[in-house]
Each structure stands twice: as C-alpha cells, then as structure tokens.
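Good day; I would like, with your permission, to put a structural problem before you. A protein sequence and the structure tokens that stand for its backbone fold form the material at issue. I would ask you to consider whether the tokens describe a fold that such a sequence might reasonably adopt. I set the record out below, with my sincere thanks for your time.
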Amino acid sequence: QALHAQAEEALAEGGAGGVPQGLDGGRLGLGRSLVRAAAYLVSLPLNLGFLWSLLHPDSRTWHDLIAGSRVVEARPKSQGEALLAAVLSFTALTALVLFPLWAAFARPTPHDLDAIRKAQEGLKVLSAGQEAYKAEHGRYTSKLSDLASVSGDVGAFKEAMGELFDPDGFVVEAGGGGYVIRGRARDRKRTAVEISGP
C-alpha cells in the first residue's frame, strides 16, 4: 500500500499533472491499480482509448472506465496552463487525424507509379524520334509536330501523348547540338519527367 502511494506521488510529481483515484474520490488500491495498468493496453491501439476521453463527459479513458477510476489534477491549472494544454491537445489530435490522410496522398499508389513509368517510357520514344528527325534533317527539333510526323502516325502519336502526359507544361527544346524534353506524368501529383540527349 505504501508502495502504491509512492507511485501515485511520483505520477503526480512526474509531470503527468494528475492522480488516478476511484470514482468515490479514494485511492484505487492495489487490485484496481493493476486492472487499470493492464487495461491501459486496451487504450493504446491508435490511441482510441485516449481519444475517447475527449468525448466522455468526465474525460475518462477506456482504461479508467474498465478500472472504475478517473484522473484528478494534482493541483489546479492556471488559465495559461489550461490554454496551453488545450492547444497542445488540439494540435496532437489534428496531427493524428491529418497525418494518415497526408501520408495516403503523399505515398504513390500503384496507378501513380505506373503512370510515371509510362511517361518515362514515352520520353524514350520521343528521344528516339529526336534521333530519327536529326538523321533526316541534320538537327534536333523543338517542335512536337515534327516528332509527330516522324512517328509515322500523327493521330496515334497525339492520342498516346494525351494518355501519357499532362498537356500543361510539356516542353521540347533543341539547340547547341542537343535537346531536352520535359513533361508531367498523369499521376495524382503530375510528377515532372525529363529526358535529354544526346
């Protein structure tokens, strides 16, 4: 019992800001303290047990509900401390909700990776078109229409370009004995792709 009292004191002084107690306001006792400690594991997955306390009228977590306990402040908070705690809690909750959404968007899907791969393959075809144009005309071209005509099927060329690349920002530059072709793949982020030669 003395060990349990010391543990409660350490918790209160250790910066947690609260002491667990029974619903009647008394100490938990060793049995309920062990139940609460074991039930803590129920609250951990995805922090759902802790988030529940934001909805509960007495701010009780799942492990408090299981153990029949609640946490009371070791000392009342000043207005500044209460505001800081609210801001930090809101920030943490916002991060818990928004991070998975951000990660889901930031991580390329198989469709995104396929679109980027196809755009890079398309650039290789365009590069081969530049080499064919140079073989015929003695220089590289900065006109997409020239590359379309070299392809042999202008209609199929235009259709393929529309499937592989975002039409905004597609650039073909030539000069100084070389060329650069830049475009954006048709993935969600419109990833920039580029090839240059020779």
